[in-house]
């Protein structure tokens, strides 16, 4: 509460945020990594617990040994016998190499290999094992601009929404991701791990969630001045709600051609958390953007853009009034 | 062919303009005035006391490895302070800026906190670059510079002039990054840079150019240094110093410098290609026109990961010297310790992909690099066990140096635990760009800082002849450790709360309390900085009381550097000793040979001082500055002059000078007398120009014994 009293935001109490990590299982927990709501994030969490358990056994024992030796062999206290020559023991040295080798061997198989396939962004078995023969997975194209997210739903008449992601529960969702200008990371801490989005390239990822709710999405890698504001809420809604939402979106008269996208992709810091939506974007926009970038299309940044944010916001208000 | 830059450019000044100087910035403008005033005071003081000649002869032109090492360490400490101030500003920004909405402070054009993204980005980029390459690296290189030749019984490094060149080029890099504060701006893109955001279209200012040339210069300086270390250890060991008797610190210096020599060129090439993109309009790392932005990330981390072991291995070596000395026991498992160092060095080459697991390579590639990364844990684990069992059956003295070393062990344990988490892709995806990673690598880098403070306290009396104040050393240790806990425990927690790196505006109000705890931690760090300065002041004030009158300052030291006089004379050893055992000093102490004096002396050969390294260093700064601002005439002129100086020096060579045997005997007597006296003038005169009574002759044969006949081009100094 050091600075809070100088600002207008005195409402956040110290106590709840300082609760132990174990409290992470509670609803609406701030411990996003300990409170996974997507199958991929959950798999990662389980692997983390296994890894920490094994490592803590070794690290913890070593730390206790060091503390014990410090206590026992302290000069002057005469608790332990001094042997100023003792510097080698075959048994101990075999153990010193053996213990980490066994631990690494176990973790390599149990966590590294298995985990890499379970949450492999291109084909995460944690998600794909939930694919039903007649269940409809949905595809979403993600385009990151400087500094907004555009989510396109090709199966739903190419409806699109910026800075907000809506997905149905209990349904695998497959993402194709690219970027216009620079590299960043697509990340929803409670649902899906980080995956790079890169200009002129396509990456993939997938998620599935069984928990209705709203989760914070983040641009996790540094991508320029607007990164902190490049946020999107991810809403996991019921299938019926999702269908209602897509219906509503399809009735939206706004459309987006590549030319309009070109304007949309200009540097823009989403300070006011706007989530514009379009009833239809140009089909194939994702591939079009990627090809343009591969052919050298850029959306350059002005110099000193954010040296003064108030100045920037004035420019933004003037330029984007239309 | 040259890229057109946005904004004005003139042939005379390049992109320089008055508007590039941030004289309206309420932080930088007063800082600039303070620095100018301090500079004037310093220059006036040196002039008043008539010390310019002393500084020039004894420091600026020196090729003495100990003095160069001291200057490296001073440079490293100054930059450690600068990097710390950056850290303080970042923590303050996040503590102030957390939470929704405009906080109404309207400071310095920021809508959250007091730093707009433009400033915040520069600060964390400078913080990272400075801490790794301009603080940790100079501190470690400086300590290696001082200790490695002493540990192997050499008179100097293999290439004393090259050593000076390395220092002055690194200093040029320091000047370049410091001047970016007051002229223009620095890069925003993190210390390692991202493709393609560092391309001209997305970083139109000079910041990235400052970043490129600072990195290039420090890479050049470090590469030169690594050649020197390897040549020194391979060729200049004293008789009897077999590989099996090499102290562990020297072994880690060898493994670290093999890494540096083989990996730094990778960085230099990667940055040269970034330079080509920005200056010549090529498309190595652009998104379009066939460029490949992933290539940059690969090339950078192909250097970047070996680099982190380049900095941690010497730190491991320091722990391996300090812990046995204060346990009164040899290091446990010497051979496995050495093998482990080389295992770490070897594996460091095959792990770089773990810096970008999230780039989306397939599970087969990920797994391979994940397991390779976990392999690092094996030799590191062995090392920790060995240190633990060095304590076992020992007689432990918890001096300040020992506290810092044991503190480093605990940081290493935490860093190792979290490192094994990050090595696994499934876990890595969840925390890759979060502050959890930041906390992890700060554990590892602080392990280095702890080892460095330990080493400074440990070896200080060897160089200066008096010990640092133990009480204030311990007070600083506890303050620093409290600061570390208060800053980095919350950072781990914030990682689990999903906070990502480099947020100018941490948007989640639930993080706020942790930021406040971190801010308290930063103030505890400030206190530890003050404790450090006070420790220096108290130690220098009480230097007579803390005088060391024996070669072995701690009474329980083990390796060869403790055999020669304290403080170490400029020739290191009056007679090069014969090495009989691993831990030579411990062996001699046990057998009663510590006070054994040489029965005769030989003439020795020493290198001459030279100002050329300083000139070339200054010129490389001008090259970097000229390139940054695209002042082509300045760049070309400085480059040509530097090359001319190099050719001149290469043709001229340095014949060095000979100190005759009788003179050696006399100087040895003086040095021993100085060790026993309470003379406070600690730093012995050294180098080629001092001590006007030394008769110096150009050498034809450095191993010549008996009377030397002066060759025709001999000089009398």
From TrEMBL, chain A:
Gene3D superfamilies reported for this sequence: 1.10.287.90, Cupredoxins - blue copper proteins (2.60.40.420)
Primary location: membrane
Location(s) in or outside the cell: Membrane
Molecular function via GO: copper ion binding; cytochrome-c oxidase activity
Keywords: Electron transport, Membrane, Transmembrane, Transmembrane helix, Transport
One GO BP annotation of this record: ATP synthesis coupled electron transport
Top-rank taxon, per record: Bacteria
One cellular component term from this protein's GO annotations in UniProt: membrane
TM annotation in the entry: 44-71, 92-111
InterPro entries per UniProt: CcO_II, CcO_II-like_C, Cupredoxin, Cyt_c_oxidase_su2_TM_sf
Membrane topology summary: Multi-pass membrane protein
Ranges for domain Cytochrome oxidase subunit II copper A binding: 135-248
Similarity-based family: Belongs to the cytochrome c oxidase subunit 2 family.
The protein, known as: Ubiquinol oxidase subunit II
Organism whose genome encodes this protein: Igneacidithiobacillus copahuensis
TrEMBL record, chain B:
The entry's keywords: Cell membrane, Copper, Electron transport, Heme, Iron, Membrane, Metal-binding, Respiratory chain, Transmembrane, Transmembrane helix, Transport
Domain annotation Cytochrome oxidase subunit I profile: ranges: 50-580
Location relative to the cell: Cell membrane
PROSITE patterns cross-referenced by the UniProt entry: COX1, COX1_CUB
One example GO MF annotation: heme binding
Major site of localization recorded for this protein: membrane
Residue spans of biased composition, Basic and acidic residues class: 669-682
GO BP annotations, alphabetical order: aerobic respiration; electron transport coupled proton transport; respiratory electron transport chain
GO cellular component: plasma membrane
Region (Disordered): 669-692
Pfam families the record matches: COX1
SUPFAM superfamilies given in the database record: Cytochrome c oxidase subunit I-like (SSF81442)
Membrane topology of the entry: Multi-pass membrane protein
Gene3D superfamilies documented for this protein: Cytochrome c oxidase-like, subunit I domain (1.20.210.10)
Membrane-spanning intervals of the chain: 27-49, 70-90, 124-148, 160-183, 210-234, 246-273, 293-319, 331-357, 369-389, 401-427, 439-460, 472-497, 517-537, 606-625, 631-648
InterPro entries per UniProt: Cyt_c_oxase-like_su1_dom (IPR023616), Cyt_c_oxase-like_su1_sf (IPR036927), Cyt_C_Oxase_1 (IPR000883), Cyt_c_Oxase_su1_BS (IPR023615)
PANTHER family cross-referenced by the UniProt entry: CYTOCHROME BO(3) UBIQUINOL OXIDASE SUBUNIT 1, CYTOCHROME C OXIDASE SUBUNIT 1
The family this protein is said to belong to: Belongs to the heme-copper respiratory oxidase family.
Listed name of the protein: Cytochrome o ubiquinol oxidase subunit I
Organism: Igneacidithiobacillus copahuensis
Organism phylogeny: Bacteria, Pseudomonadati, Pseudomonadota, Acidithiobacillia, Acidithiobacillales
């Amino acid at each position: 509460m050091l600075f809070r009293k100088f600002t207008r935001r005195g409402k956040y109490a110290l106590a709840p945020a300082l609760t132990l990590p174990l409290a992470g299982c509670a609803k609406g927990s701030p411990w996003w990594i300990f409170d996974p709501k997507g199958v991929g994030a959950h798999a990662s969490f389980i692997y983390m617990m296994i890894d920490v358990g094994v490592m803590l056994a070794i690290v913890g024992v070593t730390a206790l040994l060091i503390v014990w030796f410090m206590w026992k062999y302290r000069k002057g206290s005469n608790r332990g016998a001094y042997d100023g020559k003792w510097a080698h023991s075959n048994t101990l040295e075999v153990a010193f190499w053996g213990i980490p080798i066994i631990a690494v061997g176990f973790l390599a198989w149990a966590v590294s290999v298995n985990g890499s396939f379970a949450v492999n962004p291109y084909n995460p078995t944690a998600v794909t094992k939930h694919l039903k023969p007649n269940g409809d997975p949905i595809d979403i194209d993600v385009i990151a601009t400087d500094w907004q997210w555009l989510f396109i739903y090709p199966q739903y008449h190419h409806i699109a929404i910026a800075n907000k992601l809506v997905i149905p529960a209990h349904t695998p969702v497959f993402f194709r991701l690219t970027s216009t200008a620079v590299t960043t990371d697509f990340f929803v801490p409670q649902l899906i791990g980080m995956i790079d989005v890169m200009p002129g390239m396509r990456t993939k990822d997938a998620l599935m969630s069984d928990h209705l709710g709203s989760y914070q999405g983040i641009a996790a890698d540094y991508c320029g001045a607007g990164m902190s504001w490049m946020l999107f809420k991810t809403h996991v809604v019921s299938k019926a709600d999702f269908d209602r939402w897509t219906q509503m979106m399809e009735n939206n008269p706004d459309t987006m051609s590549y030319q309009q996208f070109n304007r949309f992709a200009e540097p823009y810091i989403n300070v006011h958390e706007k989530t514009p939506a379009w009833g239809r974007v140009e089909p194939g926009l994702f591939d079009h953007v990627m090809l343009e970038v591969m052919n050298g299309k850029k959306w350059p940044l002005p110099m000193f853009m954010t040296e003064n944010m108030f100045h920037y916001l004035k420019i933004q208000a003037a330029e984007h009034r239309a | 062919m040259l890229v057109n830059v946005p904004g004005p450019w003139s042939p005379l000044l390049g992109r320089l303009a008055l508007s590039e100087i941030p004289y309206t910035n309420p932080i930088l403008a007063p800082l600039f005035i303070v620095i100018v005033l301090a500079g004037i005071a310093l220059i006036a003081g040196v002039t008043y006391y008539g010390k310019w000649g002393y500084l020039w002869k004894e420091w600026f032109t020196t090729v003495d490895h100990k003095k160069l090492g001291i200057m490296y360490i001073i440079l490293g400490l100054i930059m450690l302070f600068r990097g710390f101030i950056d850290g303080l500003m970042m923590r303050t920004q996040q503590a102030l800026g957390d939470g929704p909405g405009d906080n109404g402070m309207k400071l310095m054009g920021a809508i959250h906190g007091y730093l707009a993204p433009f400033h915040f980005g520069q600060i964390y980029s400078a913080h990272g670059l400075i801490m790794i390459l301009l603080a940790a690296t100079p501190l470690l290189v400086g300590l290696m510079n001082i200790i490695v030749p002493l540990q192997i019984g050499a008179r100097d490094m293999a290439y004393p002039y090259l050593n000076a060149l390395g220092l002055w080029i690194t200093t040029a890099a320091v000047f370049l990054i410091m001047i970016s504060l007051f002229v223009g701006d620095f890069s925003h893109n993190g210390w390692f840079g991202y493709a393609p955001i560092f391309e001209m279209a997305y970083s139109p200012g000079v910041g990235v150019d400052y970043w490129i040339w600072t990195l290039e210069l420090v890479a050049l300086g470090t590469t030169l240094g690594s050649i020197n270390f390897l040549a020194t250890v391979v060729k200049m060991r004293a008789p009897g110093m077999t590989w099996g008797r090499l102290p562990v610190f020297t072994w880690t210096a060898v493994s670290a410098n093999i890494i540096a020599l083989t990996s730094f060129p990778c960085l230099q090439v990667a940055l040269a290609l970034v330079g080509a993109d920005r200056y010549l309009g090529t498309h190595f790392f652009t998104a379009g026109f066939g460029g490949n932005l992933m290539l940059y990330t690969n090339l950078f981390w192909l250097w970047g990961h070996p680099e982190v072991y380049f900095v941690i291995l010497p730190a491991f070596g320091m722990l391996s010297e300090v812990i046995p000395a204060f346990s009164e026991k040899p290091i446990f498992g010497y051979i496995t310790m050495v093998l482990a160092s080389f295992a770490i060095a070897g594996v460091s080459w095959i792990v770089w992909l773990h810096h970008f697991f999230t780039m989306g390579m397939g599970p087969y590639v990920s797994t391979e690099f994940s397991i390779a990364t976990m392999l690092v844990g094996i030799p590191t684990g062995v090392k920790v066990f060995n240190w633990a069992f060095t304590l076992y059956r020992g007689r432990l003295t918890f001096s300040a140096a020992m506290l810092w070393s044991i503190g480093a062990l605990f940081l290493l344990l935490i860093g190792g635990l979290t490192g094994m988490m990050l090595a696994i892709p499934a876990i890595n995806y969840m925390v890759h760009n979060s502050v959890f990673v930041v906390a992890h690598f700060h554990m590892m880098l602080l392990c280095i800082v702890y080892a460095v403070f330990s080493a400074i306290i440990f070896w200080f009396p060897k160089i200066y002849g008096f010990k640092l104040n133990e009480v204030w050393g311990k007070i600083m240790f506890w303050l620093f450790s409290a600061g570390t806990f208060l800053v980095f425990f919350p950072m781990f927690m914030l990682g689990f709360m999903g906070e990502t790196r480099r947020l100018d505006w941490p948007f989640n109000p639930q993080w706020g309390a942790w930021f406040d705890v971190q801010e308290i931690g930063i103030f505890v760090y400030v206190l530890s900085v003050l404790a450090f300065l006070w420790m220096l002041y108290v130690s220098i004030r009480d230097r007579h009381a803390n005088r060391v009158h024996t070669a072995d300052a701690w009474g329980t030291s083990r390796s060869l550097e403790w055999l020669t006089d304290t403080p170490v004379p400029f020739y290191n050893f009056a007679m090069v000793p014969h090495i009989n055992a691993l831990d030579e000093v411990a062996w001699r102490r046990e057998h009663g040979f510590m006070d054994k004096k040489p029965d005769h002396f030989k003439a020795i050969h020493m290198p001459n001082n030279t100002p050329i390294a300083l000139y070339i260093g200054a010129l490389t700064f001008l090259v970097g500055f000229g390139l940054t601002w695209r002042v082509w005439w300045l760049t070309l002129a400085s480059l040509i002059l530097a090359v001319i100086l190099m050719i001149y020096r290469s043709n001229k060579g340095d014949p060095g000078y000979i100190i005759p045997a009788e003179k050696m005997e006399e100087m040895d007597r003086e040095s021993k007398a100085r060790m026993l006296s309470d003379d406070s003038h600690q730093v012995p005169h050294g180098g080629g120009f001092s001590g006007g009574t030394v008769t110096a002759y150009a050498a034809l044969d450095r191993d010549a014994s008996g009377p030397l006949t002066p060759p025709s081009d001999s000089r009398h100094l």
